[in-house]
Specification:
Blueprint (H helix, E strand, L loop, with lengths): L7 H12 L6 E4 L1 H7 L12 H10 L1 E6 L11 E7 L5 E8 L4 E9 L4 H4 L6
Parallel strand pairs: 1-5
Antiparallel strand pairs: 2-3, 3-4, 4-5
Protein name: DUF4258 domain-containing protein
Pfam families: DUF4258
């Protein structure tokens, strides 16, 4: 849950650089989320589009980190980013760290008063 926490600020900066396509960094949204989850009636809480995701990344932070692969050596560690969507609602973004310069938004969902996440909400 706190995998490599000492690097989270740096990782967040690199994720944001990827959003802005700066210095060779790339942050993209998975086709799985865009085509299978976003605005799918089977997933009514998956309403957050690219602008919401970018806004949340720009105004959020990494709150959890996982290296959940076999024997703890996952080539694609995950980071949980939380931030506000454009509506002001807090959202959870699961990020894959493909390489040092490539990041993928795996999925996005609302906090929905889930105690696992509400403790991380930043006060204005």
């Amino acid at each position: 849950m706190n995998h490599m926490q000492k690097f989270w600020l740096d990782e967040m900066e690199r994720i944001l650089k990827g959003v802005n396509k700066m210095d060779g960094y790339i942050t993209t949204i998975s086709p799985h989320y865009i085509h299978d989850r976003l605005n799918n009636p089977d997933f009514p809480n998956r309403i957050y589009d690219e602008l919401d995701i970018v806004w949340a990344i720009a105004h959020g932070k990494i709150v959890e980190g996982f290296d959940s692969g076999e024997k703890g050596r996952n080539p694609e560690p995950e980071r949980t980013v939380m931030g506000p969507a454009t509506s002001g609602d807090w959202i959870v973004i699961i990020m894959l760290m493909k390489t040092d310069k490539r990041f993928i938004v795996k999925t996005v969902y609302p906090v929905n008063n889930n105690q696992r996440y509400t403790k991380y909400i930043l006060e204005p």
